[in-house]
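Re: that backbone. Tokens:
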């Protein structure tokens, strides 16, 4: 059988080398292309060194010159008996050194295998260089882990982070584990051992204190690979993404979501968290606590008469006065035998509604004392828009445990006491059982709608938005539906009008946003283009609720990406020129949420609204769409509006498309995204999801 050739082979031999001729003849007989090794000639496939007795030119010099001139050529040193005994060490540039006992035929048999091994070494070295460049360019962080001995091999970037460069290829676990946050070490180690055992892919988040003291957040993903050597445990490989900045941004957004931007007080979410904490403390320590609802008198009249700027200024003044009263050092109502010091937590729920949580108190007299001081602090006149006003407020008080031991009971009874105080012309009232009868009468007007939410009678339908060019669904508008057991189906317009009249628009809006986001989280994620969710937000929600916090909570709870959410607002919100609302909208846009100006073209639409306003999308009202004649003849007004939107870099969407001629006209003018009965009515959530799955 013909032997695999290595061609060509360059031979360098010392002057006193006696084997050169024999080796050269044997290799040529076996079809090797053999020639003298010349550094100035084209490099051979392999360089063979025959050192003779070792008394000739220094072998080290030859090896060094050869490595410099031909670094891509593997060098094989065939020892002689003299050099095998006399040379103390091998040379770094020699790839393989063969013993003197190897004859010419044995040498010929080994040369192809040596070249193949050299090529494999070069391939691995090239891969290592590529990985090193990738590390340097991208800051790639990775490691591998062997569960049999617990050792790691780490990337250069990870070595820099932990401040440890191992002397060998692998290192003990201590330098890495000592940098992992103490609360995450068990998870980190346990996940790696489990991956080695089961072979399942894994993902986890761990915190690591780097060598500079910075706390890094890492998203670690990996899996195990079969061992390269038979009998060894599988090797676990993991890549780490540094998500520190992303985590910090989320934490900052989380912190902002607890603060009322207008007053700097805690917001509704801050209150919810605080009430749960204070209740838990009161139960644990068997203390009393009080919940105070504070509502400004005639605030709506002040807002309507003097404007929102004056109303906002008044809210800031009231917030500052309330804060002065509830400072811990000013509270003299602490129970002498209480285990802890008295605490007060002040929040603004929205609009002119404030709450105060008093914990560690002795009883109702202490809550009454604080209420009196609150009312007294508000009586000082203030000047707003050139008018001198004397603020006043009403306060309702519910006590734990006397008036209730559950969150909802205390809220409801503090609200009933507040209603009684307002009915009495102001001041404060402690809850009494008789107040519930009056509260029930008050709740009769809103019973059906409040009950609908509690009885899960409300549901959301989704009207698809389509790209007319492809007829693919690009998004959906969430539309509220309610069928009352006694009244039958209630129109969405009536639902929101009642909700605004009775003051539940904020809670209703939160429910719609949260439920819609939860529904959207269940939509198919394998589509080439993800489907956007569009939710309407009432202008009154910005008055009575912290819309920014509501959106953050809904996205966080559902896992929906901010860049897949559209918030639809109407122009009356923008016409207020309210700086607080503008900042909220800009903050949402920075997160990735799109702001949609809804119903453009309905009645009076101010073109000034489109200039320098925080909006991304212009939604054309059906009244504009209806200007397209049934035969498809165009509407100059509609065409100009679409062109204007494009000039202002606003994305146009048409709603209320009812026939094909309208769709053709819109698409021809550059408005390709549209919705309406021509494509689909609003359909239940499960049917919309099925539509996406088969599309």
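Recovered sequence:
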């Amino acid at each position: 059988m013909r032997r695999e050739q290595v061609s060509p082979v360059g031979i360098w031999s010392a002057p006193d080398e006696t084997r050169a001729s024999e080796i050269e003849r044997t290799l040529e007989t076996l079809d090797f292309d053999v020639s003298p090794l010349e550094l100035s000639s084209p490099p051979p496939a392999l360089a063979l060194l025959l050192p003779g007795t070792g008394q000739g030119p220094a072998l080290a010099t030859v090896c060094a010159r050869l490595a410099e001139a031909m670094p891509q050529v593997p060098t094989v040193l065939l020892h002689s008996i003299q050099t095998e005994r006399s040379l103390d060490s091998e040379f770094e540039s020699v790839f393989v050194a063969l013993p003197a006992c190897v004859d010419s035929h044995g040498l010929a048999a080994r040369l192809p295998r040596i070249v193949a091994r050299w090529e494999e070494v070069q391939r691995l070295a090239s891969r290592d260089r590529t990985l090193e460049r990738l590390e340097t360019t991208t800051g790639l962080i990775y490691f591998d882990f062997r569960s049999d001995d617990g050792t790691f091999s780490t990337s250069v970037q990870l070595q820099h982070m932990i401040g440890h460069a191992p002397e060998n290829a692998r290192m003990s676990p201590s330098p890495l584990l000592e940098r992992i946050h103490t609360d995450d070490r068990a998870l980190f180690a346990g996940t790696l051992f489990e991956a080695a055992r089961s072979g399942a892919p894994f993902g986890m988040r761990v915190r690591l204190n780097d060598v500079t003291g910075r706390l890094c957040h890492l998203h670690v993903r990996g899996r195990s690979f079969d061992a390269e050597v038979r009998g060894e445990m599988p090797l676990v490989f993991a890549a780490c993404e540094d998500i520190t900045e992303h985590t910090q941004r989320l934490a900052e957004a989380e912190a902002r979501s607890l603060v009322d931007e207008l007053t700097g007080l805690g917001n509704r979410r801050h209150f919810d968290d605080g009430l749960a904490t204070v209740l838990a403390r009161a139960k644990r320590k068997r203390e009393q606590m009080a919940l105070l609802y504070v509502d400004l008198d005639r605030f709506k009249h002040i807002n309507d008469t003097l404007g929102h700027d004056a109303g906002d200024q008044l809210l800031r003044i009231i917030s500052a006065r309330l804060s002065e009263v509830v400072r811990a050092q000013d509270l003299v109502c602490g129970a002498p035998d209480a285990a802890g010091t008295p605490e007060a937590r002040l929040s603004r729920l929205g609009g002119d509604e404030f709450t105060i949580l008093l914990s560690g108190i002795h009883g109702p007299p202490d809550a009454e004392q604080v209420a009196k001081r609150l009312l007294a602090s508000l009586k000082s006149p203030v000047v707003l828009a050139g008018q001198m006003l004397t603020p006043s407020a009403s306060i309702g008080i519910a006590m734990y445990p006397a008036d209730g031991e559950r969150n909802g009971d205390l809220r409801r009874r503090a609200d009933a006491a507040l209603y009684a105080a307002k009915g009495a012309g102001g001041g404060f009232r402690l809850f009494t059982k008789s107040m519930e009868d009056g509260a029930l009468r008050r709740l009769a007007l809103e019973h059906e709608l409040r009950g609908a939410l509690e009885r899960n009678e409300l549901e959301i339908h989704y009207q698809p938005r389509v790209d007319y060019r492809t007829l693919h669904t690009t998004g959906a508008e969430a539309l509220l539906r309610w069928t009352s057991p006694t009244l039958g189906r209630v129109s969405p317009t009536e639902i929101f009008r009642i909700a605004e009249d009775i003051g539940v628009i904020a809670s209703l809006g939160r429910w719609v946003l949260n439920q819609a986001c939860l529904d959207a989280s269940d939509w198919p994620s394998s589509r080439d283009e993800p489907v956007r969710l569009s939710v309407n937000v009432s202008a009154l929600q910005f008055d009575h609720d912290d819309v920014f916090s509501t959106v953050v909570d809904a996205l966080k709870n559902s896992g929906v990406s901010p860049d897949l959410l559209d918030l639809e607002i109407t122009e009356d919100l923008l016409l207020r020129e309210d700086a607080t609302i503008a900042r909220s909208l800009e903050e949402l846009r920075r997160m990735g949420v799109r702001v949609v100006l809804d119903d453009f073209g309905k009645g009076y639409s101010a073109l000034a609204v489109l200039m320098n306003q925080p909006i991304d999308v212009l939604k054309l009202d059906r009244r504009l769409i209806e200007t397209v004649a049934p035969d498809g003849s165009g509407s100059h007004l509609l065409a100009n509006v679409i062109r204007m939107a494009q000039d202002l870099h606003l994305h146009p969407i048409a709603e209320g498309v009812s026939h094909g001629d309208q769709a053709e006209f819109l698409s021809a003018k550059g408005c390709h995204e549209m919705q309406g009965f021509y494509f689909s009515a609003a359909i239940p959530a499960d049917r919309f999801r099925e539509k996406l799955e088969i599309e």
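The radius of gyration is 39 Å. Residues 104-138 form the longest helix (35 residues).
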